[in-house]
Amino acid sequence: MILQINNDHQRFRKIVKGRIRKELRKFLTRSELLGREGKKYISIPVSGIEIPNFRYGDNSDGGVGTGEAKPGDSVNEDGEAGPGGDQQGNHILEVDVSLDELAEILGEELKLPRIEPKGKHSITSERDKYSGVRQSGPESLRHFRRTFRKALRRQIMAGMYNPKSPRIIFERSDKVYRSWKTILSPQSNAVIIYMMDVSGSMGDEQKELVRLEAFWIDAWLRRNYQGIESRYIVHDVRAGEVDRDTFFRIREDGGTRISSAYRLAREIIEKQYAPTEWNVYLFHFSDGDNSSESDSRECCAMVRDHLVPSLNMFGYCQVASAYGSGNFINVVHEHLSDVEAVITSRVNNKDDIYDSIKAFFAPGR
């Protein structure tokens, strides 16, 4: 019975994953997922999955086309509204899916290659690996199945086991305990530095696009690394580091100087994230408005000479705004088109997030 239940559960999970794949572009735009950020599991609303159930009653109610009307008769000739329906609607089923499963579906559907971490894997972590059994140890590590099997075998061989009144009595020699050894495991760590323009031209709609994209960037990178750190920088004419909540809520009304954010990101990387030990991802979100062409060119020089040598990827995402000039992405294309680690995307609405994620991670960096 338990085996059958497990098989049914596995089949149901496959159905759920198939439905998520089918509607992945729609799931990428669901803002309600953001309320469950940071949790191991999130609830995914999935429609169209029927839960099998029995219906009792006879078939005397008839079916479709069993009334007295004839072909060609108009529907509802008297023009009056009919009564309310008496059938249940299609309910939406919420299914708990782990972030790992969600990221795996994302990678498979977008055909994203697994990321090959760079660096020398010089960061190691100690962990205990259970590698065998031994005859002594704490009761909390007692291997129940092997202990039970050993005691049962002893009683059968001694003629002490009665199938009609099965009772297993453990002796000290029957007990088996898990053994372990401490191993050093190379750990590929990564840091994601998010930068966002918070000047007056970046409104709530633009921040929602950024937040959705950042959620899926986090999900995919956590699928590829054992450890992830996230840092957040906001800027107008000046840049500052903030926490996650502030990053998505703050709004200023000043001008924009993008170089201030790049300069702060460079300081953080140089002080805390050596490229031999860390995989560094830098993402900048803006509407493309900047204080001057000279500052835009300075930004490109900084990316090429100081940031790219330390990064796995520099991703620039330009979100549509009615107030921004949108010219910064053109300057990036002009000055950095030959730099392989620099990838750009445009997000005009939620539907574009799907293509933006694919553009950033298709190279597999």
Question: Would you write up a description of this structure?
Answer:
The protein is of the alpha/beta class and 365 residues long. It has three domains: 1-50 and 91-109, no CATH class; 124-184, no CATH class; 188-361, von Willebrand factor, type A domain (Rossmann fold, 3-Layer(aba) Sandwich), CATH 3.40.50.410. It is 34% helix and 22% strand. It is built from ten helices and ten strands. The strands form three sheets. A six-stranded mixed β-sheet has the order 7-6-5-8-9-10, with helices on both faces. Helix 3 crosses helix 5 and helix 7 (258-272) runs parallel beside helix 8 (293-307). It starts with a helix and ends with a helix.
List keywords for this structure.
22% strand, two-stranded antiparallel ribbon, 34% helix, 3 domains, alpha/beta, 10 helices
Q: How would you concisely characterize the structure shown here?
A:
It is built from 10 helices and 10 strands. The chain is an alpha/beta fold and 365 residues long. The protein has a 6-stranded mixed sheet with strand order 7-6-5-8-9-10, with helices on both faces. It has a two-stranded antiparallel ribbon with strand order 1-2.
CATH architecture of the largest domain: 3-Layer(aba) Sandwich
> What are the segments in which pLDDT stays under 50 over at least 5 consecutive residues?
120-124
CATH class of the largest domain: Alpha Beta
Order of helices and strands: HHEEHEHEEHEEHHEHEHEH
Radius of gyration: 30 Å
Beta-strand share of residues: 15-25%
Cα distance, first to last residue?
Answer: 46 Å
Helix percentage range: 25-40%
In the CATH hierarchy, the third-tier topology of the largest domain is known as Rossmann fold
Strand order of the largest sheet: 7-6-5-8-9-10
By CATH, the superfamily of the largest domain comes out as von Willebrand factor, type A domain
Coarse morphology: flat
Mean pLDDT across all amino acids: 78
Treating each run of at least 4 consecutive H or I residues as one helix, how many helices? 10
Q: Structural class of the secondary structure composition?
A: alpha/beta
Q: Report the strand count.
A: 10
- Total individual domains: 3
Biggest sheet record? 6 strands, mixed
